[in-house]
Each structure stands twice: as structure tokens, then as C-alpha cells.
Amino acid sequence: MGESDAASKLRSDFLQVLRSRGRRIPDDLVAEVGKPVTNPMYQGNSPLGSRTDMESCPKKEIDGFEDRLVEENLYLITEAGEQGRLPVLMLSLKTSDEKKRPAIVILHSSYKCKEWLRPLLEAYASRDYIAVAVDSRYHGERASSRSTYQEALISSWKIGDSMPFIYDTVWDLIKLADYLVQREDIDPSRIGITGESLGGMHAWFAAAMDIRYAVAIPIIGVQGFRWAIENDKWQARVGSIRPLFEEARLDLGKDVIDKEVVEKVWDRIAPGLALQFDAPYTVPIIAPRPQLIINGSEDPRCPVAGLDVSISIAQQAYKAAGCPDNFQFIAERGIGHQMTATMVKAASDWFDKFLKP
Question: Which Gene Ontology MF annotations are present (predicted)?
Fold first, then answer.
């Protein structure tokens, strides 16, 4: 089986997993008009933190920028049920021509929402991109309380009727691509995708599973799930959604969370995450499309040592495709699980390099 055949089979297998939980799909993709969110939902008990790094994204100085800024709020119906209503926020500039422009999908981290990303959306819109953000599953407009996401993760473990960790949002992003390529103002060959932390995982998987995402920049999201289990480096990732693993520990009759608990949880809520869909298999199949992976060298949730094999295989894939310069891995020295201004600038430059005419 050739490499392209292997990639095609992996994508087909992933789609089968996505469809395995009784997903009811509308015959047509429906877009409904929405309204701006005045009081965004932020979850968890941690402080929101600073937007300083996002605000450092290169922004073109434009007279009357606010007057020229076009904001669209809409909902895409990606499947039946409450969580099948995907909230979308899009920012762009009014123009006098009808040229198709590049689009960038930007994805938020855990417990935040699309409105948190507005500094990035405005920066890219100022540079003639159509900037797009969505609420991931059980976040933002898809959450009813500050614990909705945690409750969904636990329900997934206990009932098994949903996949709120990564997979369900990847389904939404595949349907989002259906919508974006149909728009008259977007060049369907120039759609990029990026995200931070959980959003970085979403960007990584969406680009791997949907070739319409032409450029991918996952930030502090790519990790080796199998490597973490085998090398006892799973604690920080587990700690980010600890109530889920505590519930699983109790159900499995364990005194402590151990690697058996971790493996069973991943297999239940995201089948194949630590097996056939792990980084060594999904990162390389993004080739030959441009891909920039950015992590912190000291990130305990995404240990760079766990990516050695994935990076090596990806480099080989891009070299075999005749475009080794289309792949880059950056591990910012001295940085843990944090998106920095340097990362934001590197992502901006990468998009400009590959999406601007």
C-alpha cells in the first residue's frame, strides 16, 4: 500500500470512528444567522489570563478600521442534537472588489471560547484574511455552566455516547470546511487552521483528516499519547482534565490513577488516540501541505521528547514529497505549556508565506 493509500485509509478509519456514536447527519449543511455574544461563557476556576501575546499578532494600521470591520455570527448545523449547532464568528474587512481571500480558522484552548480570540481575529482581518473562530464542543455558546465540559467528559466515559475530547470538534471542523469552501469570498485552496492547546489538538487532527485545510499550525497541542503512557509522562495532560480520570479510577477500583486508567480512558473517549491516530501516524499525513508545529521545550503536557519519532517521520514524508521546507518544528526554549508572542509571530509569518498570493 502506497503512502497516499495509507493516508486515505487512516482518514476513512477515523471517519468511521466519528460516525460510530450514533451521529445523525442532516442531508444539507444549514447555516443560520446568529447574534454577537455579549457575555461569553468561560469555564473552570482558573483566572482567564492575559491576551497580551495574542495582541502582539501583526496588525495592519487601517484608518477607520472599526467601521470597515465586518462581523458575522452564525450557526452551522453539523448534526442533530443540541451540540450539533456550531457557533461561528467571522471577521473580515469591507472591500470594493470581489476577489476571493484566504481564510484562517483559529481555535481556542480549554474552558475558553471563540470571543476570547478576538485580538487574533482582528489582526488577521486587518491583513485581508477572513478570520474564523468557533466554539468547540461544550464550550462557549455550547455550554450551560462553568462545568459543562468536565461533565461531558465524565459522561463520555460512563455512557460512551459522545467524544468531547478532540474528536467531536474535529467533526465540526470537517463540516466547517464544507461551508467555507462554498463561500464566494473565500479562496477554497487557501484555508489555514491554527489553535492553542486544546485548539492546537483540534487544528492538528482537522488538518490530518481534511485536506481542504491547506496550512496547519498547531500551537502547544501536538503530543505523543502512546509515548506518554509508555514513558510515564502522562500526569500533566491528565491533570488538565483530572475529574474525568478520578471518576474512571473509582469505576475501575483503583487507589490511584495509573497508566492503565489513562489508557482505558483514552480508548473510551477518543478511540485510537494512543494507537493508530497518534502523532506518528497523523502528523506525517498532512504532507505535502505546509505544517508548522510549535511547542514549548519544557511543556509537561506536550513533552517534546515524545515527538521525536513523529517529527522524524514527518520530515521524511515532506522530503519524499519534494517539499522539505513545508515542514517545521519549533520548540521554544525555556517555555512550558504557554503560547508566547514569539509563537504568535511565527504562526503569522508562516500563514503569510503560504497563504498570501
Answer: carboxylic ester hydrolase activity
Decide if pLDDT at 204 tops 90: yes
Q: 293 pLDDT exceeds 80?
A: yes
Q: How confident is the model at residue 5 (pLDDT cuts 50, 70, 90)?
A: confident
pLDDT at position 270 is: 98
- The model's pLDDT over 260-289, given as tens digits with 9 standing for 90+, comes to 999 999 999 999 999 999 999 999 999 999
DSSP secondary structure code for residue 136 in this structure: P
Q: pTM of the full predicted structure?
A: 0.97
Structurally, the chain folds into a number of domains equal to: 1
Give domain status of residue 51, yes or no.
no
- Report CA-CA distances (Å) from 174 to 43, 76, 187: 25, 11, 17
Find the helix packing angle between 341-355 and 118-126, rounded to 10°: 40
| CA–CA gap between residue 228 and residue 258 (Å, rounded) | 12
The pLDDT of residue 314 is 98
Q: Is residue 190 part of a domain?
A: yes
- Retrieve residue 84's grid coordinates: 450539533
Tell whether the torsion through CA atoms of 115, 270, 32 and 207 is positive or negative.
positive
Measured between alpha carbons, how far is 290 from 323 in angstroms, rounded to an integer? Answer: 9
36 Cα distance to chain centroid: 22
225 assigned to some structural domain: yes
Q: Is residue 275 part of a domain?
A: yes
On the 0-12 / 13-18 / 19+ scale of CB atoms within 10 A, 249 is buried
Question: 332 by DSSP, 3-state: which?
Answer: strand
CATH no. for residue 276? Answer: 3.40.50.1820
